[in-house]
């Protein structure tokens, strides 16, 4: 039950909801806590956890901390991993290989698996082309002695950039809540290393300036420059010249979204011909970054602030446009939908900071064994094309009875619904007497799907029967598509989506680009993005949307599919 104080701070809470047009359906058990979740194909997703007393077991009886999720059967199978992947970052590179970087120090507890130090790890997966995950490329490759990062990184961000390589940013040398100058990795490296930079890192003044709240710092802009967001600040960075080009206005009203304050930032869909970038930053906390752990409370109300800025000269001059979420959000997930809307899901209404939104450490956390409380169980829809004041709504969205807080995840699937999984807001289990069921919000293995009404009801939707597997930049390709007559009069959209590398509420690299297209009969001619600044070369998904109803997705490789330089 939400407190009277909290209710008074949620002006838009609805006591009665409209009839739901989306539906939660519970299907299967993940077997591990997929706090890192990456969609691989129509049939598979990759999940990373930490060594833990997970029910999913390896062949030797040890608990798994990585696995494949099978969408067709809603079951999980274990994967063997050498290093501790907990709190890593990652992304696909241009040849379709998924790269996971960094992680946590060694965890070697009998029965939990023997994980070596993961903070310098580079883990390679795929491309995995078999539907059941048993073919070549469907295992995690590691060679810690010969293939590793330059420095140790816990909580890094990895971003595929315009040449198809990874830019790896930030993190910390050790586990922490607030990053400190003595432990912070306020620097950048690349995988593969850029010419002349092997074995070196680039110092980042921006990361240094955003201490102590700069963990998991994010997006490639259409200019090819990088937008970096941390704490309440943001900057535009030129990779090629290693130059910070500008600082943007701070987020309004003292709101902070970067870890450990845990709101979100998302690049909104890009549309031709101008591909003007607009960034949305919502939720988090308005507490100062000088707050101490002792001053924090799991009853501190998160902010409802939701701000956006368009990164053009006029947009930057106008500054952040502020709206209000229907309810406060800490630790939310964001999922770009094929029609360009943004689903905001999971998280909590009260609490403080990421590691503390999870593991109990703040002054009043002991009673519920969590530093966050009041789970956010009803999603929010953000409609970026509508006028200010009309974009945020919970109408038609259902409420789940499963708390999805710290270490939860959500991703769009090839079927066009949203997979929702995980939650782990407490320390790992140390003994039989200290089991997860003793916690108010136990480790959560149940998997849900959030289905739009046309999937729930089996209503007609566009069907892609043939599509190109690869498309060069600015090249044209044809898709064979059937548009139901009931949808033919509506707007037609073609979406190219990178679903991102999902962890800790950040969907690093997630983006949607609307493609130019023409329809003649059942033949849809599409034009790929003009260059790697609009969509970095690598794998993606195409959806056809008619009158707001989208098809199942088909995979495509954008660019030549070659290795990054």
TrEMBL record:
Keywords associated with the record: Signal
Domain Glyoxal oxidase N-terminal: start-end pairs: 68-453
Matches recorded under Gene3D superfamilies: Galactose oxidase/kelch, beta-propeller, Immunoglobulins
CDD domains to which the protein is assigned, alphabetical: E_set_GO_C (cd02851)
Residues annotated as signal peptide: 1-18
Keyword Transport part of the UniProt annotation: no
Classification via InterPro entries: Gal_Oxase/kelch_b-propeller (IPR011043), Gal_Oxidase_central_sf (IPR037293), Glyoxal_oxidase_N (IPR009880), GO-like_E_set (IPR015202), Ig-like_fold (IPR013783), Ig_E-set (IPR014756)
Keyword Signal: yes
Residue span, Galactose oxidase-like Early set domain: 461-558
Alphabetized SUPFAM superfamilies for the sequence: E set domains, Galactose oxidase, central domain
Stored PANTHER family: GLYOXAL OXIDASE, SECRETED PROTEIN-RELATED
Name by which UniProt lists this protein: Glyoxal oxidase
Organism annotation: Roridomyces roridus
């Amino acid at each position: 039950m939400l407190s009277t104080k909290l209710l008074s701070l949620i002006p838009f809470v609805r006591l009665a909801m409209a009839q739901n047009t989306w539906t939660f359906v519970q299907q299967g058990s993940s077997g591990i806590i997929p706090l890192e979740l990456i969609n691989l194909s129509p049939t598979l997703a990759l999940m990373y956890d930490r060594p833990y007393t997970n029910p999913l077991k390896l062949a030797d009886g040890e608990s798994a901390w990585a696995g494949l999720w099978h969408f067709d059967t809603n079951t999980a199978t274990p994967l063997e991993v050498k290093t501790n992947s907990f709190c890593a970052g990652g992304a696909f590179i241009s040849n379709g290989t998924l790269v996971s970087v960094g992680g946590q120090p060694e965890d070697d507890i009998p029965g939990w698996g023997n994980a070596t130090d993961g903070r310098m790890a580079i883990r390679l997966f795929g491309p995995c082309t078999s539907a059941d995950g048993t073919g070549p490329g469907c295992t995690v490759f590691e060679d810690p002695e010969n293939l590793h990062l330059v420095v140790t990184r816990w909580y890094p961000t990895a971003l595929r950039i315009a040449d198809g390589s990874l830019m790896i940013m930030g993190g910390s040398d050790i586990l922490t809540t607030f990053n400190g100058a003595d432990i912070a990795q306020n620097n950048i490296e690349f995988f593969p290393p850029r010419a002349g930079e092997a074995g070196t890192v680039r110092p980042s003044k921006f990361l240094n300036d955003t201490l102590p709240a700069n963990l998991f710092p994010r997006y490639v802009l259409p200019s090819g420059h990088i937008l970096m967001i941390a704490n309440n600040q943001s900057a535009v960075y030129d990779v090629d010249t290693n130059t910070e080009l500008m600082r943007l206005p701070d987020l309004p009203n003292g709101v902070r979204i970067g870890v450990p304050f845990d709101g979100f930032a998302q690049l909104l869909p890009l549309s031709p011909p101008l591909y003007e970038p607009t960034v949305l930053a919502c939720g988090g906390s308005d507490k100062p970054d000088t707050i101490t752990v002792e001053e924090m409370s799991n009853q501190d109300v998160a902010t409802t602030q939701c701000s956006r800025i368009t990164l053009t000269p006029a947009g930057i001059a106008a500054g952040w446009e502020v709206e209000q979420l229907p309810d406060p959000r800490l630790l939310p997930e964001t999922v770009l939908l094929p029609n360009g809307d943004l689903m905001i899901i999971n998280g909590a209404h009260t609490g403080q900071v990421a590691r503390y939104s999870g593991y109990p450490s703040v002054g009043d956390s002991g009673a519920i064994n969590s530093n966050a409380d009041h789970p956010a169980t009803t999603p929010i829809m953000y409609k970026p094309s509508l006028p200010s004041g009309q974009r945020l709504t919970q109408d038609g969205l259902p409420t789940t009875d499963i708390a999805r807080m710290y270490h939860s995840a959500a991703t769009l699937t090839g079927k066009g619904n949203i997979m929702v999984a995980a939650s782990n807001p407490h320390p790992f289990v140390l003994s039989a007497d200290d089991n997860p069921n003793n916690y108010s919000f136990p480790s959560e293995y149940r998997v849900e799907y959030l289905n739009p009404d046309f999937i729930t009801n089996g209503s007609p939707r566009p069907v892609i029967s043939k599509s190109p597997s690869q498309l060069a930049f600015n090249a044209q390709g044809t898709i064979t598509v059937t548009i139901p007559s009931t949808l033919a009069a509506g707007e037609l959209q073609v979406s190219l989506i990178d679903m991102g590398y999902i962890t800790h509420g950040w969907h690093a690299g997630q983006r949607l680009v609307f493609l130019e297209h023409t329809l003649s009969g059942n033949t849809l001619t599409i034009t790929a993005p003009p260059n790697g600044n609009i969509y970095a070369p690598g794998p993606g998904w195409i959806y056809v949307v008619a009158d707001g109803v989208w098809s199942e997705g088909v995979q495509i490789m954008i660019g030549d599919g070659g290795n990054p330089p």
